[in-house]
Amino acid sequence: MSASTPSRGPARLRRAALESVSGLPRQFWWLWTSTLINRLGAFVATFLALYLTVERGHSASYAGLVGALYGLGGVISSVGAGVLTDRLGRRPTMLVAQLSTAASVALLGFMTDPVAIAAVAGVVGMATNASRPAVQAMMADIVAPEDRVRAFALNYWAINLGFAVSSTAAGLIAQHGYLALFLGESTLVLACALVVFFKLPESRPAATVTAGDDRDAGGSGPAAVSMRTVVRDGRFMTVVGLNLLLALIFQQAYVSMPVSMGQDGFSSADFGTVIAVNGVLVVLLQIPVTRFIEHRSPAMLLIGSALLAGYGFGLTALAGSVAMYALAVVVWTLGEIINSPTQMGLVVRLSPLHGRGRYQGMYSLSWSVASLAAPLLGGTVIDHYGADVLWAGCAAVGTVAALGYGLLLRSLPGRTEVVVDASAEPAPASASASAPAPASASAPASVSEPVSAQGADPVSASAPGGTGA
Fold it and tell me: Is the alpha carbon torsion for 55, 58, 64, 65 positive or negative?
């Protein structure tokens, strides 16, 4: 009996690993593969500032301007790509974005004029961010509701794994010339587009009726979703606003924290060691932590993640050694690991089936705005009030976000989606459920079986109707 005991640990780990990846459709894994390939080639954004200052000899201010234009491109494309995701479809939007990224990244490597570099960097930012709403909407389309938190966690894990590898590889590639970075990223993005083209069919669902949605004047179909619909959806926009608060906190890790460490006398190598803790923890813990949280209350998870993020960065004010900085990173990384899949699952649940692209675009916009605003806010606070005030402010913002989630998620009604266009492409089988639609949905005679039943979901809500775009 004692001889067999040591084998139980590996067997349990294998069983847990299989359970973490089982039950997801093949289409999801091709989408996951495309994400991994894409992130394995994420060279340029990481090393753009070094390229401009070291290789091209430009000032830090110019590098900051180019970085801001790159972020501005993401702000512009987030909403536009969301609209295209709903109008053209998920697959065409991803292909256009990825082909545009490959072309613009390669072009950027050959630019020498400062104005041309800045302009093309803005285009690269637009193209790079344009695929996000489509990827997230397709993932929601093809994965069953009960598996979405796990699927988003696996996708986030692929992003961080790819980033960890690409960051290491980029440093080695750059030694042979920065042009190889641009061409390498372009090649890998093209490979990602090939996976999408050959392995991912369109997943845009048929038209739906959502319990609680406004109907059109004739009462014969679902209300159209436009960007006005999204903006008027108070609950969803509150989630976007709360996510913006958390994104502003998380972004401080890449701008304000290295500045703070530098002021305390630490080297860039010390910062590299500290920030590596974040990547290692995400790769090691994302999947097991998700297994623990995926069927728990989203409200409690988001409250907890907001507090971990806020007070994790708040601990930085007490850091006087590399070990203390690393401890602070451990705390806020746990918040990040919990928040990412839970927040993405909430965004999908709050989005009407026929408007997922626009909703995902608005959600992506909060991250793009944070990437622009966080460096400015962090730098201003440090310059005028000191780093300790910034870290105390992060703790306060995390507390506000936690209170906001607690108030928002305590009493949200559920929603049931049903297909009303029998002639349209059916929704993926993996997203179906057997529960009937509630009587209040008043579906027409052509209604097929429900796509998903979430009547008992405590965090689902229907979006208000709006005019078509």
Answer: negative
Tell me the C-alpha distance between 95 and 91, whole Å: 6
Report the chain's mean pLDDT, rounded to a whole number. Answer: 80
Give me the sign of the Cα torsion angle 143, 144, 148, 150: negative
CA atoms of 364 and 354, how far apart (whole Å): 18
Q: Provide the b/e sequence for 123-154 (b: ≥16 CB within 10 Å).
A: bbbbbbbbbbbbbbbbbbbbbbbebbbbbbbb
Tokens of 331: 């705390």
- Asked whether residue 61 carries a pLDDT value surpassing 80, the answer given is no
- Ordered by where they begin, the domains of the chain are 24-204 (1.20.1250.20), 227-411+460-469 (1.20.1250.20)
> Which residues, in sequence order, are CB contacts of 380 under 8 Å at separation 6+?
none
Q: Is the dihedral of CA 134, 341, 246, 391 positive or negative?
A: negative
Element (H, E) at 452: strand 450-453
pLDDT tens digits along 223-270: 578 888 899 999 999 999 999 999 999 988 877 888 888 888 888 778
Kindly write down the DSSP assignment for every residue of 126-176, as one continuous string.
HHHHHTHHHHHHHHHHHS-GGGHHHHHHHHHHHHHHHHHHHHHHHHHHHTT
Edge-to-edge order in the sheet of strand 208-210: 208-210, 416-419, 450-453
Distance CA 415, CA 426 (A): 19
- Counts for the chain of helices (H) and strands (E), in that order: 17, 3
C-alpha to C-alpha distance for 250 and 331, rounded to whole angstroms: 12
Q: Quick one: CA dihedral 45, 47, 48, 49, positive or negative? A: positive
Question: Measured between alpha carbons, how far is 2 from 8 in angstroms, rounded to an integer?
Answer: 11
pLDDT higher at 380 or 175: 380
Its sign, for the CA torsion 422, 80, 247, 240, is: negative
* Residue showing tokens 């109008």: 87
Among residues 291, 336, 337, the alpha carbon closest in space to that of 147 is found at 291
Written as six digits, the tokens of 302 are: 């988001």
DSSP strand pairing (450-453 vs 208-210):
unpaired
Task: Indicate the DSSP class of residue 294.
Answer: T
